[in-house]
Design a protein that fits this description.
The chain has about 150 residues and is mostly beta strands. It contains no helices and 12 strands. The protein has a single domain, classed as Neuraminidase. It is about 0% helix and about 55% strand.
């Protein structure tokens, strides 16, 4: 096994490795507050920025199982109490697409990779674990609900 440095910017905020191990995605923040998601191809060494934003905080990266998309949590920088919204962007870049609102933490893929699983804290303080269609967040189903963090 060989170990090598993949970035040297020193401003990484989150990272994920694709299921195949071929790609690395990471969030960085510039000194001016611009956040971006970059993707490196670990085989050929190329890198590209797939998303830039100056009004969101980006977090909780995950690759889709087919490695066509990077999923990420997005929080409105100007509304600190806002819920985290899960979005996705193509590995090639372009416009991001909303997937689901009100996610607490990272997502994972289930059911032959067609659904995502995630947590959401309810207004009454209980924590629900849900699944939804991975493409657009439709067909939400509650899998379990437990006493919340504050109880």
């Amino acid at each position: 096994m060989a170990v090598r440095q993949l970035t040297n910017s020193g401003d990484l905020r989150a990272a994920a490795i694709a299921p195949s191990g071929r790609y690395l995605a990471w969030v960085s923040r510039s000194p001016t507050g611009l956040e971006s998601i970059s993707v490196s191809d670990l085989i050929n060494g190329s890198s590209r920025v797939v998303l830039r934003t100056d009004h969101e905080v980006l977090k909780d990266l995950a690759f889709s199982p087919d490695e066509d998309f990077v999923y990420y949590g997005s929080l409105d920088r100007n509304t600190p109490t806002a819920a985290v919204n899960e979005q996705r962007v193509s590995l090639l870049g372009g416009e991001s697409a909303p997937v689901i609102k009100g996610v607490d933490g990272a997502i994972t893929f289930v059911d032959r990779d067609k659904r995502i699983c995630f947590a959401r804290e309810r207004e009454d303080g209980q924590l629900s674990f849900l699944s939804a269609d991975a493409d657009d967040g439709s067909n939400e189903k509650v899998l379990a609900t437990v006493e919340g963090r504050n109880q």
